[in-house]
Amino acid sequence: MREFLGATLLSLVLAFAITAVLGPAFIKWLHRLKYGQEIREEGPAWHQKKSGTPTMGGIMFIVGIGLSIIINLLIPRIMGTVRPEMVKAAALFAVSLGFGAIGFIDDYIKVVKKRNLGLTALQKFVLQLLFAAAYVVIMWLFGMLKTDIIIPFIKYPVTIPVWLYIPFVMFVVVGTVNAVNLTDGLDGLASSVTVVVALFFALYAYFRSAAAPETGVAMYAMALAGGLLGFLIYNKYPAKVFMGDTGSLFLGGAVSLMAVDMNMHLYLIIIGFIYFAETLSVIIQTSYFKYTRKKYGEGKRVFKMTPIHHHFEMSGWKETKIVTVFTLVTLILCVIAYFG
Predict the structure, then answer these.
(1) Cα-based torsion angle of the residue sequence 126, 151, 179, 275 in order, rounded to the nearest 10 degrees
(2) How far apart are CA 183 and CA 122, in angstroms?
(3) CA nearest 150: which of 224, 215, 203, 204?
């Protein structure tokens, strides 16, 4: 227990320190390259003042998390041992990195090629689907695919056939990745919410797992939390840097993969409520607008603006209040899910 806690704490501290120290130089470098975010006109008018803020800052915490994992892998190896849990953490990081790479391509097109919308929705969806499919198939081929799904609060696992489980997991992963991406719309919002989610997975993986402690997931989750806390120094309001799709797609991949690894797919609805509320608000808004335009000749809206964090902005809430409330909601739901 003591050895695990020490290594886990080291993962968090290293990821935090590396990201925090890397921040000023990296932000300066982004400024020099003129990698500033262009603010879309359909967003809130007051967001235009954020135009030019460096984006692609997700690279900061990705590097911090990656180096933290590498160092934690090397330390026991130098001592002549191999920590299986760190191999698991490295594998989770590697697959999450694939989703981050999709985000990087999207950011690069927006910032360098000056195409404000980046990759098309179809291009992003296909790439995400391919990565999700590759992850599931590899797990299946190596005999590591567990087709159980734990029912929240009941804690009773339901086993489903592989032919049904594989498309279900692909749906969960791609859905979560895009939900986290939509949440990244205010200074520090996606970062703050995901810190809480990551700490939930870290604690649950070790102390509440029905099987043996999932120490690999716990250590990856702690590194993720540490990297995000270091990033929040520069991403909190008023943000000096944005994570971009590079960061948000990486986070979505990390969150969904940890849930899948622990058979906690359905828990994402609870602990990731904010992510899915953001997504659901967009679906409701778009569907209702199209329906009313077809029926009445004029589109109507349910919300003032979506994703829903913009609705609260338009209702007079300050960014800091929205981030605080959304983070507290996530914390409360994570506590309920943990003890439920």
Answers:
(1) 180
(2) 20
(3) 204
State yes or no: cis peptide before 238, omega within 30 of 0: yes
Q: Which two tokens stand for residue 112?
A: 């360098």
Considering only CA atoms, which of 319, 178, 175, 185 is closest in space to residue 244? 185
Are the CB atoms for 107 and 118 separated by under 8 Å? yes
The model's pLDDT over 242-264, given as tens digits with 9 standing for 90+, comes to 999 999 999 999 999 999 989 99
Q: Residue 192 corresponds to which tokens in the numbers above?
A: 């703050």
CA 11 to chain centre: 18
Q: Which residues are CB-contacts of 104 (< 8 A; sequence separation ≥ 6)?
A: 56, 59, 245, 246
Token pair recorded at residue 240: 């000096």
User: Of 31, 332, 330, 314, which Cα lies nearest the Cα of 183?
Assistant: 330
User: By three-state DSSP, how is residue 158 classified?
Assistant: strand
Q: What is the pLDDT of residue 206?
A: 79
SS (H, E, C) 81-107: CCCHHHHHHHHHHHHHHHHHHHHHHHH
Write down the residue that tokens 């009941």 correspond to.
154
Q: Which pLDDT does position 297 carry in this prediction?
A: 87
Where does residue 337 rank: exposed (0-12), middle (13-18), buried (19+ CB within 10 A)? buried
Instruction: Enter the tokens of residue 16.
Output: 């935090």
Q: DSSP E strands: which ranges in the chain? A: 148-150, 157-159
The pTM of the whole model exceeds 0.85: yes
Report how far residue 85's alpha carbon sits from residue 206's, in angstroms, rounded to the nearest whole number: 11
* pLDDT tens readout for residues 187-221: 999 999 999 999 999 999 877 665 555 778 888 99
Pairing of strands 148-150, 157-159: antiparallel
Q: How many residues does the chain have?
A: 340
Among residues 278, 191, 193, the alpha carbon closest in space to that of 239 is found at 191
Q: Which of 66, 253, 260, 57 is nearest to 150 (CA)?
A: 260
In order, the DSSP letters of 55-66 are --THHHHHHHHH
For residue 331, count other CB atoms closer than 10 A to its CB. 18
